[in-house]
Amino acid sequence: MKSIAVLFAILFLAPALWSQQPTGDVEGAIRTYREYLTAHPDSLEARSNLGAALSRSGRYAEAIAEYDLALSKSPDNPVLLLNLGLAYYKSGRPADAATRFERAVSLAPQFKDQVTLLLASCYNTLARYKDAIALLAPLENEKSADLAFDYLYGTALIGDGRNAAGAAVVDRVLSQGESPEALLLRGTLRLRAHEHEGALTDLQKAIALNGRLPGAHARLGELLVAMRETERARAAFEQELAVDPDEFTSNLNLGVLAKQDQDYAPARRYFASALKARPNDPGVRYQLALLDVATGNRDEARKSLEGLIAESPDFAEAHATLAAVYYRLDRRAEGDRERALAQRLIDRQEAAQTGAAPR
Amino acid sequence: MKWPVKWCLAAGGSWLLFSGWWLGARGQETEPRRPHFTDIASKSNFAYRTDNNFTGRKYFPQTMCGGVAAFDFDNDGRLDLFFTNGAKLPELQKTGPRFYNCLLRNRGDGSFEDVTAHAGLLGKDLGFSFGAAAGDYDNDGFEDLFVCNAGPNVLYHNNGDGTFTDVTARSGITKPKDVLSAAAAWFDYDNDGKLDLIVSNYTVWTPQTDKICAVDGREYYCHPKVYSGVAHRLYHNLGNGRFEDVTEASGFGAELGKGMGIAIADFNGDGYMDVFVANDTVRNFLFINQKNGTFKESAFEWGVAYDESGNAGSSMGADAKDYDNDGWPDIFYNNLRGQIWGLYRNMGGKSFDYVSGVSRVSRLSARNSGWSNGFVDYNNDGWKDLYSANGDVEHMPESREHDTMFENVDGKQFRDVSSSLGADFNHSGYQRGSAFVDLNNDGFMDLVVTSLDEKPRIMLNSADNGNHWLLVNTIGRRSNRDGIGAVLKLITASGRTLYNHVTTSVGFMSSSDKRVHFGLGAEKAIASVEIRWPSGIVQTIKKPRADQILTVTEPAR
Predict the structure, then answer these.
(1) What pLDDT score was predicted for residue A11?
(2) Terminus-to-terminus CA distance in chain A, angstroms?
(3) What is the nearest CA distance from B60 to chain A, expressed in angstroms?
(4) Residues of B in Cβ contact (< 8 Å) with A328
(5) At what angle do helices A216-226 and A196-209 cross, to 10 degrees?
(6) Which domains are present in chain A?
(7) What Rg, from alpha-carbon coordinates, does chain A have?
(8) What is the average pLDDT value for chain B, to the nearest integer?
(9) How far apart are CA A306 and CA A301, in angstroms?
């Protein structure tokens, strides 16, 4: 996973974390470290450097394996944890990255400054916007001229629905010029405020300036879904995945579109990718349960839905689908129970929606 | 009856189409030859325009204006047209001719005569009118008319002399105060030979309780979620012109919906008619007839309550017919842009499978906001196609849409052939009501469509692809005289089996030709037509001639 935050963050993190790594021939370095480790398997420094070299060459799974091996011998080594977190981050596993960063900082608070933006980026990707805000808000005065900071902070505020505070950050970013990142941020803000025309202008302009700006095609896709332009949305999500194959929103939406077309195998792949970005996301798990319903795996669907409802008892759609599954399984009493629960939740939602948005 | 050749040519331009087809045939492989549609409304002198009184203030009912009923009110063998209209708001009154309903008599020469005033159907006393349902509720041989309104609903009795009488008061048909009724359907739920009435209601609404919704001072039509649902109502025909409201006793009263289209069919093959109601933004209802005067709402169990994702879309029009010729009526409902129109395949009378994706309806439908709709074999190839009258909710230039026809490919998938069906079919507007009707009795279904703030389109099918057909006009004796609910099975000489049933309730706010239509493709010979009447009597007609309107009277036993 790449993002603007990473691009900024890696610039200052890389020298600190990968200082041991030889420059120049990375593949040669990997071979050298492996040979050395054959003779000296307990060398933490060599294994850590091997992990860094593998990361640098994009072989994150191998890097993670090396870091894990090193950590098995030195579980509280904060540098190893940071490097492992970075490898997870770059391989599109923000949840795993966040836990390593958090642990590293708890063991070595002096790393906090170096990790803050990366961790905030993880939180944003995981939709843990409140955690990102808690991390970034205390630094606002100190870092308000930092574009990477503002981008992450603005994203968190907008994601958390704090549009007024988000708008202030957007203005601050835009005061430094109409960068693609600034336009993406404002486009996102306008999308959330249902200002579709303005959002479209911003997002298209951001993409024109930088067609590989992470998240820009995904936001455009979301906007086009809201504008009921399904096929254009599909194309936008596909373009996002060409930039970042692990991007959550695009995988989720493409999965939903594939499911609508009853192309179940690709739908399942998209949902699996979405879950990689946000493990245990209830929305994605619900979609996977729907796939099981659609493909006749009713018992699997039942188990998934029962688990989902246990964790999210107010998930009305899940109750409704579970009711239908129970009926198909000839479990009428349970079907009646879930149906009543679904109806009660839907009625409650409807009663709360007195000022609903335009249809 | 064939209409004059001169008039057909003028209306359809069929020679040009023929030339195009021939040139295409000499080149590479061609598409099947398709009929097209030509609007002939301009050949008639009538004032009716669908008028929802949009003046800037956005009242909730304005989005739903222009119901259609196609029925032969004067029994001259030519189907006539009735249109509903709006009202002045907030007065909720038809304050002048611009809001009157309209009855057009089919002259048989391609023109229509406005006979509304003579017939007594102007509806001066009515509020904002929506759906219309035609049916011979008293079995006197003349089709009667029910009109749904914001304000009291009305039942018109056909006097048989070209006039109608408002018999609502003595019929006993009432509804709770301020309930807005969108559509209605005639059917005989207890098979006692008398047509009963189901009315789909949307909410409780008056101009005074209308909600205002706006963003940044710009008003838009409120999302339906701001209005509460109400029960649909069932009226049992007692005979002698009297009806009893059996909403509560029948089980309809227990379910609160936001009713739009109604589809009537015997979904489980038990000989009793069931009811599907498309609800706007709340789950759909499937009332399965328990054969004892009650219904069980079974949409969950049958898999039609929600779409595949467990969401309630903006279900609009509804129809139930057998699109794959397997003998079981399927369900088609449409909804708004960005949602997926629902096509549900009946799995042997036990449940429905959602097939919008595999049939390609999901991809074809996502760009359109559909209102009235239905299954119709427009090209007489023996496969029922999917029609939808489209146009978004809001009055904005970009929300104008054209109708769509998704052609049925061997009962498995659909393809969008709208662009092949002529400029009139592709008219851009805010389409709302629609009826399928063979206006010139040539065996090809014509289309009548209303659009907000416009004259309706009365579109003749060019009927020029050479396919054959049969129309069956059922006359019940022990069953209701219209034969509504009769199930027909046609077997061609080659053994191909086609199914259909008698119903006038198709789409949204509309009532279609009650005659049962079969396209036969290239086949000219029919082996048999079997009719299972609502009375239980099964009648078989051997080797009827193709390309005719076959009137079949129910035997005494």
Answers:
(1) 33
(2) 35
(3) 13
(4) 303, 351
(5) 150
(6) 1-126 (1.25.40.10), 280-359 (1.25.40.10)
(7) 23
(8) 93
(9) 8
Is A259 in the B-facing interface, judged by CB distances under 8 Å? yes
**Which residues does B456 contact at the CB level (< 8 Å), separation at least 6?**
B41, B48, B50, B66, B68, B81, B83, B448, B449, B450
Distance from CA of A168 to the nearest CA of B (A): 20
The answer to whether A263 contacts chain B (CB < 8 Å) is yes
Amino acid at B219: E
For A296, nearest residue in chain B (alpha carbons): B353
Choose from B222, B225, B307 for mutation: most chain A CBs within 10 A: B225
Asked if B224's CB is within 8 angstroms of A359's CB, the reply is yes
Helix axes of B14-26 and B5-12: crossing angle, nearest 10 degrees? 60
Query: Is residue A197 within 8 angstroms of chain B, CB to CB?
Result: no
Of B283, B310, B357, the CB nearest to A262: B357
Answer whether A157 touches B (CB < 8 Å). Answer: no
Give the Cα separation of B36 and A58 in Å (integer): 59
- Residue B545: DSSP 8-state: B
How many other β-carbons are positioned within 10 Å of the β-carbon of residue B292?
Answer: 9
Strands B510-511 and B68-71: parallel
pLDDT beyond 80 at A70: yes
Range B122-127 average pLDDT: 97
3-state secondary structure chain A: CCCHHHHHHHHHHHHHHCCCCCCCCHHHHHHHHHHHHHHCCCCHHHHHHHHHHHHHCCCHHHHHHHHHHHHHHCCCCHHHHHHHHHHHHHCCCHHHHHHHHHHHHHHCHHHHHHHHHHHHHHHHHCCCHHHHHHHHHHHHHHHCCCHHHHHHHHHHHHHCCCHHHHHHHHHHHHCCCCCHHHHHHHHHHHHHCCCHHHHHHHHHHHHHHCCCCCCHHHHHHHHHHHCCCHHHHHHHHHHHHHHCCCCHHHHHHHHHHHHHCCCHHHHHHHHHHHHHHCCCCHHHHHHHHHHHHHCCCHHHHHHHHHHHHHHCCCCHHHHHHHHHHHHHCCCHHHHHHHHHHHHHHHHHHHHHCCCCCCC
CA distance linking residue A129 with residue A119, whole number of Å: 11
Question: Once rounded to an integer, what is the mean pLDDT over residues B79-97?
Answer: 97
Q: Which of B301, B309, B338 sits opposite A327 (nearest CB)?
A: B301
Rounded CA-CA distance A70/A33 in Å is: 13
The residues, ordered by sequence, that sit 6+ positions from A230 with a Cβ below 8 Å of its Cβ are: A224, A257, B338, B366, B367
Record: contact A358-B221, CB cut-off 8 A: yes
Of the candidate ranges A118-132, A172-186, B20-34, the one whose mean pLDDT is the lowest: B20-34
Q: Which chain B residue is nearest to residue A227, measuring alpha carbons?
A: B338
Out of B226, B358, B394, whose CB is closest to A353?
Answer: B226
pTM recorded for the entire structure: 0.84
Q: Which of residues 274-303 of A touch B (CB under 8 A)?
A: 286-287, 290, 293-294
Q: Which of A54, A43, A58 is nearest to A21 (CA)?
A: A54
Residue B267: predicted pLDDT: 98
